[in-house]
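Thread: "does anyone have the structure for this chain?"

Original post by V.I.:
We have the sequence but no experimental structure in hand. Need at least a predicted one for the grant figures.
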Amino acid sequence: MAARERGGEAEGHHSLGLLDAGLQWDYVTELCERWKVPVIVKGLLTAEDAILACEHGAAGVVVSNHGGRQLDGAVASLDALPEVVEAVAGRAEVYLDGGVRRGSDVVMALALGARAVLVGRPAMYGLAFGGEKGVRQVLEILRDETENALALLGCRSPAEVTRAHVTGARTQ
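Reply from O.Q.:
Generated one for you, tokens below.
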């Protein structure tokens, strides 16, 4: 029986069998070539990984620490965003996942170079609270808060938000 099947700790395998440590960057290239669809790579936090994703044909990258629940002290997705945006240098779209709870979070991510954000957890909470209607309400609130944050910054649309609208450690 393989270590993965019995929950052992064989080198290269997560002890719970949830992660496949055998995946290589060439797999991104293979997906791009085989399926002829845009491939988006999720879970990047460093410039090095962003560069590799682009070199292997990724059409987009998702800056994500996968919720940051598994490792105390994990870098916040928003803190990793500027480095990844700079490394990608327009060769792929950059999205942010993690920590988006308010419209101001959306605007911050846009200001730091994200094309869009993913909002799985808020949508899940809305679903648990009120089904489809709850999800709709969460997304409407998020949209309204985003529009309010833009107005407070003097921006008429998300396209007008720039890094100049952000101050603090995240811009350095």
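V.I.: this helps a lot. Strands lie at 40-44, 60-63, 93-97, 116-118.
O.Q.: and The radius of gyration is 18 Å.
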